[in-house]
Amino acid sequence: MDVHADKFLPRPTPESAPFWQGCKEHKLLLQHCSGCGTYQFYPRLLCATCMSQDLEWREASGRGKVETYTIVTRAVSDAYAADAPYAIALITLEEGPRMMSNVVGCDAQSVTCGMAVEVVFEAWSAEITMPKFRSVAG
Amino acid sequence: MELTLDSLRGKVAIVGAADTPVGKLPQFSPTGLCIDAARRAMSDAQITKDQIDGLITCNSMAEPYMYHAEAMAEYLQIFPRYCMSVNAGGSTTFSILHHAAAAIASGMCTTVLITMADSLRTGLTRDQAMKMQSSAGHSQFEIPFGPTVPAFYALIARAHMEKYGTTAEQFAAIAVACRKHACLNPTAEMRTPITIDDVINSRMIADPLHLLDCSLVSDGGSAIILTSAERAADFPHAPVYLLGVGEGHGHEHISQAQSLTTSFAVESGRRAYAMAGLGPSDMDFAQLYDCFTPTVLVELEDLGFCEKGEGGAFVENGNIELGGLLPVNTHGGLLSHCHPGNPGSMFALTETVTQLRGAAGARQVEGAEVALVHGQGGIMSSHTTVILGRERN
After folding, report:
1. pTM, whole model, 2 decimals?
2. CA-nearest residue of chain A to B148?
3. I need a labelling partner for B282 at 20 to 30 A (CA). Which of A6, B188, B198, B275 fits?
4. How does the average pLDDT of chain B come out, rounded?
């Protein structure tokens, strides 16, 4: 975990704490609105579609597709240099929301738009576990 | 029905415009550049500081103040009745112009100094500049994954390539056009011609963006003086009138964008065209925000200069070069003139004034009467489109 110590660790807020707790338990949690049935990400105090506050945390399937990606050759900081070249992708989850993550476990050059991916979890500290994605094809 | 400020059309004019030198300027602080730009613009307009009753600035990353505009007023010992700092990333310049025009039209003040500067080149280390700029990402849901600013824009570029078949060579054509114009501009930082192959063969930064698809990191400042159309007649230079302005704000973080390939430039452009009563085909040239080459391509489409998805074909064959269908970034843009961060678009604005005064020398757009300038901030997040012209009506 020490290799992640100098990375930009997320700092959970009251709205997002259940999401990060879920990651720690290797569950990808999304807010589901009981008012309009929409899944949303990132976590919010209310449903940004219908403004209802009747939100429920549900475990997502963890599967999605790469909508777009880039391969970063010049890392953002020294803490990320060992990972370079690394793939950053916008992933559309089966439930609808889009999230940013890294595609890991493969050569970054093999990432493509439309690639089917599934969530994996990477512990960065005692508190923070990051949701990452890998190719379903393996 | 949408409420529009139709009344801004022809109500205000730019009567002074000037830049500081740009590039690597360790002899200036960011505050010094901001003040020097103001001094130069006042000199261009031939007015005294006492005639300025409005001041708008944007903060500097290298030398921030909690209340930047107030600090600049204090430094200059001017005492405006309208004083504000705006922070909308690369869209700041034209958003400020919008605010300033509305302030003059509504009687909050009569003559506004807009001055901006930063020292991203010498005022910050390379790592500080990278970290500060990548903080445009979401602190919990984007930044931890290690995106750089080029990476954010690369996501857009890749999506456009995937959806419309746009090629890296087409993005490169934008860098080539900007460099060609910079070669005709004695104040531009980069004045060695480049080819499409040079761009493609330059170091990959964030696939598909190469080094030469990325804008510069510079020091520099730029300022304008804006006043009412009535007062504008009393100034030495021919006024440059504001004919249309519109904003569109779609998101802050790219992962939340409604579309990765169509931006809210559609909205800002629609509003600006409606106010001006003009359309894309009326524009003699355009200055489009070019922090990275793909932004220009998306803006050309979203501002209606070509059909959606046809930006790649549009930028080929010299169409956006001087003498082409629509000269773009006639000063060299952020890609080849200079890019000191949020003040970057100011240089596109002062260049537009120079062009519409007919004073652009070797890079003059012949017979230029009307131009469109566009800024976007964040990651294709906040957009402001401005239409300027030589004639008030």
Report:
1. 0.96
2. A76
3. B188
4. 95
